[in-house]
Structures are given as C-alpha cells and as structure tokens.
Write a structure and sequence with these properties.
One of its GO terms (cellular component) is membrane. By secondary structure, this protein is mainly α. It has one domain (30-144). Helix content is 74%, strand content 0%. It is built from 8 helices and no strands. The protein is elongated. The protein starts with 7 loop residues before the first helix and ends with a helix.
C-alpha cells in the first residue's frame, strides 16, 4: 500500500494506539471513588429507565441493576484493559472486538444523546477499520510474539 510518510500497517497502528489512548482516557477521567460506590451505574440506570426501547430497559434491569458493584468494576476495568491492550498491541483483535461491542452498548444506551453519539460512533468506526486493517501487524506485542499472523 502506497501512502505518504508511514506505511499502511503503520497508519493502522496509529489508529490502534489512538483508540487505546481514548479508552485509557475514558478510564482515567472517571471519579473512581464515586464510580465504584455505584454512581456511574445509577446514572446509567436513570438513562435506561427513560429509554425509548423497552429491550434496553429490560436488559439493564436484568443484567446490570442487580449487580451494580460488579458492573461498575467490569466497565471501569474493561476500559483500562482495552486501553492498555490497544496501546501495547497485545491480543489486539480481541481488544478491538470487545471495544467495538462496548462502544455499541454505549451507543444504544445513549441513543437519544447526540453529543455522546459522536464519540461512540467514532470509536466503533476506528475499531472496525483497525480490525479489518489488521492493526496489530506493526508496533505491537502481537507482532513481536508472532500472534495473529
């Protein structure tokens, strides 16, 4: 692939690392004390209660609401793991698929808030492009360890 300045594989690595930094920032900016006390899950619960799609309300009430502490830890540390995995390029295809799923979950939950949609859609798009561009081919632990050749 002919590109300016960097090779195609390097540009995909730039996307991968940038997406990883975005997930890391998503983890970093959380008020952990309040988040782990259930503040984030309570906020999401308020959004789910008013959601226009009954499936979202039902799903939230079935899966998340009964386990607020577990879900708070799961969300926070999933964002941290995604960030570190993508930055380091470790288990990159797994991280990209999981990040895509998490972005889509956020997208569906926040379907009414167009300010949030831009971020979620962009993160999903970058994940798809990097996945199909095999963004682990360079500047990654996957490349160094010979994974996903």
């Amino acid at each position: 692939m002919q590109t300016t300045w960097l090779s195609g594989a390097e540009w995909f690595a730039v996307l991968r690392i940038g997406l990883g930094l975005w997930w890391l920032e998503s983890w970093r900016h959380k008020d952990k004390k309040e988040w782990f006390k259930g503040g984030g899950i309570a906020w999401a619960g308020g959004i789910a209660e008013k959601h226009r799609w009954p499936l979202v309300r039902t799903g939230f009430d079935t899966v998340v609401r009964p386990r607020p502490r577990l879900m708070a830890y799961l969300v926070a540390y999933a964002e941290l793991a995604l960030g570190l995995g993508l930055i380091l390029g470790f288990l990159t295809p797994v991280a990209l698929v999981c990040g895509l799923l998490l972005s889509l979950i956020y997208l569906v939950l926040m379907i009414h808030d167009w300010a949030e949609q831009g971020q979620n859609l962009m993160m999903a798009l970058i994940a798809v492009v990097t996945l199909f561009g095999m963004g682990w081919q360079t500047w990654s632990l996957d490349e160094t360890l010979g994974l996903f050749l």
